[in-house]
Amino acid sequence: MENTTSSVEIPHPAPRSSRPEILAEEIIERLTYRIGKDAQVAKPHDWLTATILVVRDRIIDRWMESTRKVYRTGGKRVYYLSLEFLIGRLMRDAVSNLGLMQEITDALTSLGVDIAVISGLEPDAALGNGGLGRLAACFMESMATVDIPAYGYGIRYVHGLFRQQMADGWQVELPETWLAHGNPWEFERRESSYEIGFGGTVETVGGYEDQPRYVWKPAERVIAMAYDTPVVGWRGKRVNTLRLWSAQPIDPILLDAFNAGDHIGALRESNKAESLTRVLYPADANPAGQELRLRQEFFFSSASLQDILRRHLQQYPDFTNLHEKVAIQLNDTHPAISIGELIRLLVDIHGMDIEEAWNITRQTFSYTNHTLLPEALESWPVPLFERLLPRHMQLVYAINTKILLEARKEKRFSDTQIRSISLIEEAGERRVRMGNLAFVGSHSINGVSALHTELMKVTVFSDLHTLYPTRINNKTNGITPRRWLMQCNPGLTNLIREAIGDEFLDNTEALAALDAYADESTFQKKFADVKRANKVQLANLVSSRMGVRLDPSALFDIQVKRIHEYKRQLLNIIEAVALYDQIRSRPELDWAPRVKLFAGKAAPSYHNAKLIIKLANDVARVVNNDPAVRGLLKVVFVPNYNVSLAEIIMPAADLSEQISTAGMEASGTGNMKFGLNGALTIGTLDGANVEMRDHVGEENIVIFGLTADEVAKVRQGDYNPRAVIEKSPELSQALNAIASGVFSPDDRSRFQELIDGIYNHDWFMVAADFDAYASAQRSVDQIWADPKSWYSKTIRNTARMGWFSSDRTIRQYASEIWRA
């Protein structure tokens, strides 16, 4: 909500009633006059929209007051720039945070409407891919909860990430049509529209005696239009804004071309603009895909910065205090072009000296790094960058010159160090390094777990850390307990309230009081009953979607996350094959019934990741139909993993798989969600698993495998994976079965290349960690066989996960980075 420049005193509306009968009347009123439906013929989706509109009205009052408060106090605003916001469904989140869940439920019940039915119709906003986007959503909710004035900036994708379906076990990507029937949560802000340019030329004006000015004349222009969604904090304390940009053409139709019969050509500008905001992460395996992705990143970065500067000038005469009133957080390298764009806007548009603009820019920006994989730190071919953003290329070279001269003169950097910190990659194809740009243009660079932060200093940013030794700091990720406990697991929430009271609702670390109940048999029984009810719910979903029947009394062993080789779904599948062999060959042993459940999406161009999905489905087909297994093992891959599916899966998990190759997962947040909902973690000492072990206790987590240091030493040494495999009969037999086509009789060589990768180089340490992983799984079986021990550990996981709240994380950002 924007400030009004009117001097007229406008009375504030009285607080709206929360009485169920009033809410019911308002729902009928919205149904009649906003949707145009009589209650007698209204469909479930009509009731959903009417309910959202009633809830939204109560949000708007608080939204406006939150905005007025910032203008009155002149406080600092935080701007969170992210290419992803995986916000999921919003109705339950908003109703719960407003404290109206019971009242809305009662109002709908009085009208003969089931809130569970209509809330399940709300589409998931397809605005993110995985952990990075979900973290952004948790952060937005926590910023509102801890009363930090904030805007989130992103793209209003029409389709966003693809909808995943399976065709004979293969991933098929289909468009996600979440906006097909409109979005009642959003508000179009046509007054917040900005021109965004691409290509063209840069002209120099002045010179000699006068300071030269540079004028960028883009060859192409589009309009960025804002759509605002309110983000409600816990108990409605503050409502912040998620502002998403939609691209529109300046000339929607070339009428002369249309009248001349060129109907397709007449719409080319419209189609080009709309393609900018149609799909999240267009496949960048080809030049056209790379260009579209760079266009997307500049489009939303430029629109966001123009909006930030406009808002600043509403309150202040110039930009000399911008860094005192504005904090901009870059969520990964996707918005890193903002560094150059802010300098361009301050210098070229607003006439600021470039040295002053550079100093203000560095004090305004901070950057969150999410990866240690060098290939995941974005870089762009110099010719593409220069053709699309010629003025920004000039500024990148200017910044680079400044940084390299500083490093050479003041730090005596060697040629090797200079090449490492340069914004331009000179080896092979010359590329602009966005990670380095984000680093040098920010005053703070944070990792997202303690281990990740320390590894940043000695790996991807080692020389930049030497140049700027005070910039890197840690902010371990967190999750919002509202969505990931209170809303998705009401049974457990009510049980906790019954045991320790309500303090944990406002302070998650108060969950520690639950420790006293971990060994109490009556509480364990109630805890187990809640878990079983959640497992029944998940089993029903799997049965209805996939026709696979799951036994809720089995151990639910779950790995859900983006499909990637470093996350090692392959290790999990291979162990499932080995377990399958053991169950058949040793039927006399007392095997713990186990369900291995997978979910996650593979990038469309990531061949091996898609092959891993196919392998999971092929193994499931064989195992689930083999009577010799006697129901002791089920393997399931659930398609189209999203927030709503996660809200059913997380509370149902007994075992949480966090088995990435040590040193490669920055943090993880799924590990926190599982732990908070009472799952035991099996994992490597990677990412936030290290801190989870410290908080929950070594005895309440199952750790296995090489450490990050050991992985580095193995890779640098004379590692022979083939020899390791040959010494492990279970691993050797499982790999041979997969490679020889036991699970792919229609194409016996289908997985040969995948398995050859383990034999020949095993970069992700699948063979190196297999025996330790299999042994850890058998220790899980032993714990499971003793329910008292199992529930003692899992209750303590819930009790000790309070520190991993995103409220704590945001408070650390606010005090140590943003000074907000």
UniProtKB/TrEMBL annotation:
<keyword id="KW-0328">Glycosyltransferase</keyword>
<dbReference type="GO" id="GO:0005737">
    <property type="term" value="C:cytoplasm"/>
</dbReference>
<keyword id="KW-0963">Cytoplasm</keyword>
<comment type="similarity">
    <text>Belongs to the glycogen phosphorylase family.</text>
</comment>
<dbReference type="InterPro" id="IPR011833">
    <property type="entry name" value="Glycg_phsphrylas"/>
</dbReference>
<comment type="function">
    <text>Phosphorylase is an important allosteric enzyme in carbohydrate metabolism. Enzymes from different sources differ in their regulatory mechanisms and in their natural substrates. However, all known phosphorylases share catalytic and structural properties.</text>
</comment>
<feature type="modified residue" description="N6-(pyridoxal phosphate)lysine">
    <location>
        <position position="673"/>
    </location>
</feature>
<dbReference type="GO" id="GO:0030170">
    <property type="term" value="F:pyridoxal phosphate binding"/>
</dbReference>
<dbReference type="InterPro" id="IPR000811">
    <property type="entry name" value="Glyco_trans_35"/>
</dbReference>
<dbReference type="InterPro" id="IPR035090">
    <property type="entry name" value="Pyridoxal_P_attach_site"/>
</dbReference>
<keyword id="KW-0808">Transferase</keyword>
<dbReference type="Pfam" id="PF00343">
    <property type="entry name" value="Phosphorylase"/>
</dbReference>
<dbReference type="GO" id="GO:0008184">
    <property type="term" value="F:glycogen phosphorylase activity"/>
</dbReference>
<keyword id="KW-0119">Carbohydrate metabolism</keyword>
<comment type="function">
    <text>Allosteric enzyme that catalyzes the rate-limiting step in glycogen catabolism, the phosphorolytic cleavage of glycogen to produce glucose-1-phosphate, and plays a central role in maintaining cellular and organismal glucose homeostasis.</text>
</comment>
<protein>
    <recommendedName>
        <fullName>Alpha-1,4 glucan phosphorylase</fullName>
        <ecNumber>2.4.1.1</ecNumber>
    </recommendedName>
</protein>
<keyword id="KW-0663">Pyridoxal phosphate</keyword>
<dbReference type="GO" id="GO:0005980">
    <property type="term" value="P:glycogen catabolic process"/>
</dbReference>
<keyword id="KW-0021">Allosteric enzyme</keyword>
